[in-house]
Automatic annotation (TrEMBL):
InterPro entries: Acyl_CoA_acyltransferase, GNAT_dom, YpeA/RimI_acetyltransf
Protein name: GNAT family N-acetyltransferase
GO MF annotations, alphabetized: acyltransferase activity, transferring groups other than amino-acyl groups
Organism: Cytobacillus depressus
All copies of domain N-acetyltransferase, residue ranges: 7-144
Pfam families the record matches: Acetyltransf_9
Superkingdom as given in the UniProt entry: Bacteria
Membrane-crossing residue ranges in chain numbering: none
Length: 293
């Protein structure tokens, strides 16, 4: 095999950066170019890559974030963008990168975790990760008296709107004290640009950004970005017309006086967690979708 170099912190090297972008597009169909050009690739996103010359052929990235667990802040490393060029697969390159990361960060985190698709479920237990069940929370909401509200649609392709979302989300409070994330606005921006570019709204009189979709009598709340506490009934009354809706939360909700339904979440990915010596990962949670790498 060609001599491979393990590199990181190369986002200012145009050739290597573009090679990384090309591999991500080839493997996952995702596009990092615009995310980088808008300044959302910060020091919190660290690719560890193997390069053959000026070509990135394998990668495992680390996202430095904080988890909020039972009201306490925990340091976390979220693994993502695990990929290998088709010509270099089955050569142990991802294993080499994972072992390097585990050695570099040994004793420096409370939790390391990732979301893996179903065809690699046997890979991560080799490194001390264990699968954790996630749960989807929902509630029924009846709107008897819709409230008119100034709701402004934001454009996930518009530079001015993106900057507004980024600046606003930099001051947000976590979605939940039971289980939430903090300092993940760059991940949110990836979702606003690439996944929910047509589903982002600003409720002016609530001073809140909402990522949501309504499908007939179902509402999917992907994120509520706010600088203050949220009264969910007030928010829902401004998003819906008269009628009864099933509301699905794509995070762990925590709203006073609300009784939620809970069911096992069976999505396209499985949450794997590696715990530090002093911490146990909580049960019955849903990791916030918009801070998943």
């Amino acid at each position: 095999m060609t001599n491979l170099n393990l590199i990181k912190n190369y986002q200012e090297n145009e050739k290597m950066r573009n090679s990384f972008f090309d591999l991500a597009t080839q493997v996952f169909g995702i596009h990092f170019h615009s995310w980088y050009e808008h300044g959302f690739w910060t020091e919190k996103y660290i690719p560890y890559s193997l390069a053959a010359g000026n070509k990135i052929i394998a990668n495992v990235s680390i996202n430095l974030i904080n988890l909020i667990v039972s009201g306490e802040k925990k340091s976390a490393l979220q693994v993502g963008t695990v990929m290998t060029h088709p010509d270099y697969r089955k050569k142990g390159l991802s294993t080499k990168l994972m072992n390097h990361i585990l050695n570099e960060f040994a004793g420096k985190y409370d939790f390391m975790y990732l979301l893996a698709n179903h065809n690699v479920l046997n890979f991560y237990p080799k490194f001390g990760f264990r699968p954790v069940q996630e749960y989807q929370y929902s509630m029924e909401f009846t709107n008897n008296q819709p409230v008119h509200s100034e709701i402004r649609k934001l454009d996930g392709k518009n530079r001015k709107d993106l900057q507004f979302i980024y600046d606003f989300s930099s001051e947000r409070i976590p979605l939940s004290k039971t289980f939430g994330t903090e300092n993940t606005q760059e991940l949110l921006m990836f979702y606003c640009m690439n996944v929910f570019s047509n589903d982002v709204y600003y409720i002016e009189n609530e001073d809140m950004i909402v990522l949501y979709k309504i499908e007939e009598n179902e509402i999917h709340i992907f994120d509520l970005v706010s600088k203050k506490g949220i009264i969910i009934e007030v928010v829902l009354s401004k998003l819906t017309n008269k009628g009864t809706y099933k509301v699905f939360f794509h995070y762990t909700p925590e709203y006073e006086g609300i009784k939620f339904e809970k069911q096992l979440y069976t999505g396209s990915e499985v949450l794997f967690v590696r715990e530090g010596e002093q911490d146990t990962f909580p049960k019955f949670i849903k990791h916030p979708l918009t801070s998943q790498a």
